[in-house]
Design goal:
This protein has about 350 residues and is an alpha/beta fold. The chain is about 40% helix and about 15% strand. Helix 5 crosses helix 6.
Length: about 350
């Protein structure tokens, strides 16, 4: 009897140990500025991918990652995530922050990693030229638009306070500035007029410049300012979360293009590439669209055309010579045209 009892006890304990060792790895997420790790695979298709991205698409990945994990290619793949200001994230990866997949607000933040050999120098040869989503710069106002703000010019009316991120940490801020400059300068044809507008805006109407696009939205919805210059998708996200805001897209505004790439030294190239392919797939692009991003897949874009009207005066960064020219001319932290305006307003341009 004793031997039978001991045999049963051992069997029961063995079953409990087996149950305790079961289970799959879940995706983990770090806060803005947090760190990630590439991890190591433990056989089969299992892998932990470190995703380092700018701040605003976190809501997309909250849906896209679980959807990818339900596919055959995503089975056994977990994620560590880090979100923050685009420029800060790019510099962090360049300085050694582990990353398998990177997504930024604008191309120069990806080019920084290409120059360092962290992503392929031909990242633009990927599908959709390496961009995973589009957007446009919009103006967000309080519900009912109590200040009757209807144009770029209205942002510099007496008494109007505007929130926009710091362009020396945030990629979205640079898009915002080039949208405003382009609209008020006739796409750069009248540089003096465009710069005069930016000088008035930043020295008299922008009381605070948060670090990232998401921080700027939080600042605005917390009660600061009368208007927020932001991505169209951020305005849609705010409304989806029940925030009491309205927004409009000015007739003259800029097309935003967000790049994505796999790190060259990823330990899991097959899984990382499969994740990008999922994001570019119809299913992935529909998730972007559901959160207010303009799909780069034209078939999905056409399905959502009523949601994303095309502004009559839409222009691209190429109107000003492309980002390589714009970064030096406008955003060099020492000599750039915007840096000089920020310095006159007492704002740090240090990166």
């Amino acid at each position: 009897m004793k031997r039978s009892f001991l045999a049963l006890l051992v069997a029961a304990l063995s079953a409990l140990v087996a149950a305790g060792c079961g289970g799959a790895s879940d995706s983990s997420s770090s806060s803005s500025g947090g760190s990630g790790s590439g991890g190591s695979s433990s056989g089969g298709s299992k892998a932990n991918l470190s995703l380092v991205a700018y701040s605003t698409p976190q809501v997309v990945y909250d849906d896209a990652i679980p959807a990818f994990q339900k596919t055959a290619a995503g089975k056994g793949v977990s994620f560590t995530q880090s979100y923050g200001a685009s420029g800060d994230q790019s510099r962090a990866v360049a300085s050694g922050l582990p990353a398998d997949v990177v997504e930024f607000s604008l191309a120069p933040d990806m080019d920084r990693l290409a120059k360092a050999g962290i992503v392929s120098s031909d990242w633009t040869s990927q599908p959709h030229k390496g961009f995973v989503s589009d957007s446009v710069v919009a103006i967000v106002v309080r519900k009912g638009n109590p200040k009757h703000i209807k144009s770029w010019a209205d942002l510099t009316r007496p008494g109007v306070k505007v929130v926009t991120p710091n362009p020396f940490t945030s990629g979205s801020a640079q898009w915002n500035i080039m949208a405003a400059y382009g609209a008020m300068s006739n796409k750069g044809a009248d540089q003096a007029k465009g710069l005069a507008y930016l000088r008035t805006l930043f020295t008299q109407h922008v009381p605070v410049q948060p670090k990232s696009g998401r921080d700027a939205l939080t600042t605005f919805t917390s009660g600061e300012g009368d208007a927020l210059i932001s991505y169209e998708n951020e305005a849609i996200t705010a409304q989806q979360k029940g925030e009491k805001v309205d927004y409009f897209i000015p007739p003259q505004t800029i097309l935003i293009q967000n790049p994505i790439a796999v790190a060259t030294k990823t330990k899991h190239p097959a899984q990382a590439k499969a994740f990008l392919n999922f994001l570019w797939s119809t299913a992935g692009q529909k998730i972007f669209a559901s959160h207010g991003y303009r799909p780069v897949d034209q078939a999905v874009f056409k399905q959502n055309a009523s949601k994303f009207p095309i502004p009559t005066g839409l222009f691209t960064i190429n109107a000003f010579g492309g980002w390589s020219t714009v970064k030096d001319k406008f955003f060099d932290p020492t000599s750039g045209l915007v840096a000089k305006i920020e310095q006159s307003a007492g704002v740090s341009t240090a990166k």
